[in-house]
Amino acid sequence: MLKNALYGGVNAAVLTPMKADLSVDLDLMAAHCRWLLANGCNGLAVLGTTGEANSLGISERIALLEGLVERGIPAAKMIPGTGTTALPDTVQLTKAADRLGCRGALLLPPFYYKEPSDDGLLAYFNEVVQRVAGNIKLYLYNFPRQSAIPFSVEFISRLLAQNPGKFQGVKDSSGNYENGMGYIEAFAKDGFEVYAGDDTLMKPFLEKGGAGCITAAGNVNSAVAAQVYANPNSPAGEAANVIMSATRKAVISVPMIPALKVLVARNTGNPQWENVRPPHLKLTAAQKAQLFATFDACGMELPKAA
Q: Which conformational region is residue 64 in: left (phi greater than 0), alpha (psi within -120 to 50 degrees), or beta?
């Protein structure tokens, strides 16, 4: 595995709890962040896909970051998603993350316009670097199923050459082993951090020089994921990997974001956790029953919330 990575280890793509009026519940989110850090997480990827970030306004996202820091969540543990379709919004969010003390930010490509050229993407990210300045390290968020814009090895090579010292790594949510390995083989030797966005790929990535994971299922499986990270080449790590992989399959057996919120609601005894912003919908009774049966069969006991 890659040593000395800024966010090396297990990072949860943190859920965003909503009140009945669908505003963000910062107190509930801070409590969940503390629980994650106490149960296997090395870092917190807030404001990502799982956190419904693209259903939040820019002012809401900045208030969320500020509110978590005010509630004692260490900014250095957070790697917020700051990439948007609009250059000024991306710059504003990334500057806010830097100002608050986040060491890194995770950037989607400008995903509205499809099939941009590599030159166009380079122009976008070069502008972000120039306008943000500061000390914050930038991470690419490769999620072509959602963004429809993949980052090729050739593109990343050009980006790194034009912006030395600014881009620290990538979260690969392609779900494709060969894609993630392409990143590792090309860049890990130079300290570039490659994080699996799919729990089932963390162990094989670690074995080849990956840095860990940034995953949605980390909201519920971080304790067992930490065992995989600590023991990737041992029987204990293999046994933990089987459980971790099963938990991921369970949470994607129904719509994933409401599924994770239902599991946290059950674990905390707080039904407010089930609130999601449209277009997401709450799970039906049948979906809940399926989720609980599948998740409970994984063999992992979820640590209780305080």
A: alpha
Burial 122-143 (b: 16+ CB within 10 A, else e): bebbeebbeebeeebbbbbbbb
Cα–Cα distance between 85 and 110 in angstroms, integer? 4
pLDDT tens per residue across span 63-92: 999 999 999 999 999 999 999 999 999 999
- Annotated catalytic, 141? yes
Q: Encoding tokens for residue 252?
A: 């994607």
Domain 9-296 in this protein, CATH class: alpha beta
Collect all residues with Cβ–Cβ distance below 8 Å to 4 and sequence separation of at least 6.
191
Would you call 171 a catalytic residue per the annotation? yes
CA distances from 189 to 12, 184, 232 (A): 25, 8, 19
Between the alpha carbon of residue 235 and those of residues 47, 198, 239, 274, the distances in Å are: 35, 21, 6, 36
Catalytic residue among 141, 183, 195, 229: 141
The per-residue pLDDT for range 197-242, each reduced to its tens digit, is 999 999 999 999 999 999 999 999 999 999 999 998 899 999 999 9
What rounded mean pLDDT belongs to the chain? 97
The domains of the chain are located at: 9-296
Q: State the alpha helices, DSSP H only, in 101-176.
A: 118-132, 144-147, 153-162
